[in-house]
Amino acid sequence: MSALPYNAWVDEDKYMLEMARMHKLQPKLDVIDVLREEFDGLKADTNYKPGFIMERRSWLVASLSAQILALSLELTDDLAAVCLAYLETLDRRDTAFIEHLSTFTSKDGHRFYETVSKDVNEAAKAVGFDPESAPSHEIEIVRQKFVEIRDMRDLFWGWYIGYKHGQFATPIVLTFSAPGTEPKQEWGLYLIPRPFRRDAITGKLHTEDRFINTVDNVGAFHKTAVECVSLSIQTRDRQYPKIYGTWT
């Protein structure tokens, strides 16, 4: 634990400072970058990882895209947690950033993005700007970024939860065909209906329109992850000195 002893009594201020120094989101983006490199290689070059052939290769590409989605959505929560924890620390005039961070829930994240995407002053405060002195165009850029992140969460949250925290979103391939055209395949996540809709007369169930093409949206997922990490670094660089002094 860096300068902190493990499983021992320590000075609280030192603990809070050292843990705040060590906290960062960049490593999660580094994992996404590695997954993206594997995804691109497998998708574009049949000689890349030759041990994965034919359908096995396609399933791996789909699963990599789902993992990139999951980590990107995790980072949207991570960014919200960082912004809220710094705000609470400053509001309470304490040094317990890491303690406030540990109480975060996804419900807090949903409320956070609803607020900062609609109110430019709240967006400014969330990343450490002074709403009264910061250039208005810079604050509006931040708000627009929060809007984009909120929209990504709104669109994909159900599949993320189903894939990462349950077994009700599963990778599948859909085949689409129209008269006179070649069949087209799309790979992604299917959200299993909960509950199933059944016809009382025929006994059939409806599969519902609950599919997202994660493979073709990897670029958008990656962009969201990059934005979250960038905003978290900007927030830390503005807020950390207000609490702990000069970054050393």
Please explain how this structure is put together.
The chain is mainly alpha-helical and about 250 residues long. It has a domain of about 170 residues. About 60% of the residues lie in helices and about 10% in strands. A hairpin with a 6-residue loop joins strand 3 and strand 4. Helix 3 runs parallel beside helix 8. The longest helix is centred in the first third of the chain and has 39 residues. The two termini are about 15 Å apart. The mean pLDDT is about 95.
Task: Name the helicity range.
Answer: 55-70%
Count of helical stretches? 8
Order of helices and strands: HHHHHHHEEEEEH
Biggest β-sheet: strands ordered side by side in the sheet: 1-2-5
The general outline is elongated
Radius of gyration: 22 Å
Largest sheet: 3 strands, antiparallel
Structural class: mainly alpha
Low-confidence regions: none
Give the overall average pLDDT: 94
Distance between the termini: 17 Å
> How many β-strand stretches?
5
Q: What fraction strand?
A: 5-15%
